Every structure is written in structure tokens, then in C-alpha cells.
Task: structure prediction
Amino acid sequence: MTALVTGFGPFGRWSVNSSGEAVAALGAARPGLAVATLPVDHDAAPRALFDAVARVRPEVLLLTGLADEPRLRLEMRARRPEAWRDAPDDAARMLHGLWPWAAALDAMRATGAPARLSDDPGRYVCETTYWAALATGCAPLVAFLHTPPLGAGWDAARVAAAMGACLDAALSATSRGRRPC
Amino acid sequence: MLRLTLTAALLAWAAPGLAEGDAEAGYKLARMCSACHGRDGAAVRANTPSIAGLDAEYISEQLMEYRSGGRVHPEMNIVAGGLKDDQISDLAAWFAAQEIPAQ
Result:
């Protein structure tokens, strides 16, 4: 089962992006796992994602990004972005991820991390990238996980542990032979 | 007496073996169903069934079938695949308690 996990680099006041840091930690802990860091830009992020997807051909794609909230947020859907200039014209305004939501939430919480489901990815580059992944069929299973800022009880290892649990829930679902298409 | 015993035996055989669910907990879980079936079980997407007001036992059975892969549906197999027994019971209790939407 091939999986790809992406995070974002620094932007604005966030000189350290918890998503990129945790993805790097997860990749270091799992040598076979494909990881990528995307630039925080509405046009460049989808392009970098598509490059990574073309290289890895993932069956499971977990996108991650930073949100200023002290818990993990598993995003279930994305709205069509206004800022992505290459957005396909014929794609839906709202697209839904596919993930074993309840199992992923339980798995993240089992690591001791607070987590919740969300249907508002925030209308920034995170949502643009999520929608781009869904609109172009980057992988059969796709979800977006928002990660809390580092500090205040969160370090990269803790975020990575929860991120890994979220990923494993999807890998477990697919490994049992239930494939979305 | 024999008839009562047989009825009880048949009911026991037909029951899916799950405890009665908690509708309030099911409401919280139903968020992950809302994209297709609506939070209250009234379908919001074409070619998706409304599940409000269906029998709780039937809903539980179907979710268990999706979970095991016995019933095949690309999205439901993934979403139900990670549900625990109590979560299935809770979802079934919530959707069963909703009013059947007007057709």
C-alpha cells in the first residue's frame, strides 16, 4: 500500500510549521513512507503536490497543514478555491474526502492527542490544496489533517504520532480489501 | 408456551447482537455521514438513500455488512470499516429516531 503524506513549510508569522515538522519526523521514523513539503502558495502548492503524486502514485494521500487551534482537526471536505488559477472549470464547488473518519479520530485520540472532525478547512492554501487533490483524483483515499502550532504541549514527535495514527487508520481500511475504486 | 419459546428463539437468532445505541452519541458521529445522507438521515446527494426512520436493527446490520465487506460500496466500506460495534449502535439509534423525510 503506497501512501504519501504532505506538510507545509513556514509562512507569515509561523517560522516553524508544525505540519512540515511532523511530516519530516514521521518520514524519518518510517523509511518507506513517501513525504513531501509543499510551499504555502495557492498556485505553487497544487503544482508541488501533483509532482509528488506523479512520483509516488499513492493509494492513500494524507495532506496536512497548520491551523491555530490547540488540537488536531480532520477535515472532511473542501470548497472550490477562488485563488487557484489553474482550478478545473468543471469540478464541483464542494468535494468530500474519503477516509475512515471515526477510526482515524479514535486512533489519534488514543495517542493522547485531542482531535475533532471538521468541515471547514479555512479557505487558505490548505483548502486550495485539499480541493485540488480531490478535484484531480490524486488518490483513492484523501484527507486533510490540520495540526496545532508547536509549543504549549505540542512538539513535532507528538504531532507525528497522531498523524501516523490517522494514516494507519486509512492503511488498515484499505489493507482489508475495501478499496474505493 | 412452545410458540413463545420459538418466537423468542427466532428473535434471538435475528438480532445482530449489538447493544441498544445512544442516539445522542450517534448524532455526534453522524457528522461523518452528513456529506451524503445528511445529518438527520435525509439524503443530500443524488443516488444516495435517505436513512432517517429506518429500523435501527436494519441500519446496524447494513453497517456491519459494509464493515465486513459483505456488502460492497466503495465509500461505505471505507467509512464503516473503522466503526466499532458501539458506534454502529449509536448511529443506528440516531438515524432510526429521525422522522422519515417527505418523498
Notes: Chain A touches chain B through 25 residues (CB under 8 Å). Residues 177-181 of chain A have pLDDT under 50 and may be disordered. Chain A is about 35% helix and 20% strand. The first strand of chain A starts at residue 3 and ends at 8.
